[in-house]
Amino acid sequence: MILLDYKDRRPIYEQVIEKMKDLILCGVLEQDAQLPSVRTLATDLSINPNTIQRAYAELERRGFIYSVKGRGSFVADAGSIRALKCSEMKRSLRSWTREAKRAGLTEDKVHTWIAEEWISPENPEGEDRI
Predict the structure, then answer these.
(1) Full-model pTM
(2) 66: left (phi over 0), alpha (psi -120 to 50) or beta
(3) Cα separation of 130 and 123, whole Å?
(4) Which of 79, 86, 89, 96 sits in a 20 to 30 Å window from 22, CA-based?
(5) Each residue of 109-119: pLDDT tens digit?
(6) pLDDT (tens digit, 9 = 90+) per residue, 50-79?
(7) CB–CB of 45/1 below 8 Å?
């Protein structure tokens, strides 16, 4: 379910948040699905339960999950979560587009880059296709 990268500079709870958000956004965790208990997930990941509790609290604060007293944590409305993600992506794209214009890139070049990334997002050589 969740794989942690101990070489990653980000705190473990942030990695848990990111992985849970990804699982929700891609539909692996469906709306109203019950999440593993804090203790169960902490045991599965071999980490401190306080780390999971912190991640769950932040996910709840952001509206990705909700808690029911005595029953556990559940996935919130995935539609609103996707809408939020789309809004974030649009803001990022708007910022990137403005920067591309300032750098003198043509619309055709930007379209080409997007099409290339859409088809093949992984670039094993680590080189930019300019």
Answers:
(1) 0.69
(2) beta
(3) 13
(4) 96
(5) 999 998 998 88
(6) 999 999 999 999 989 999 999 999 999 878
(7) no
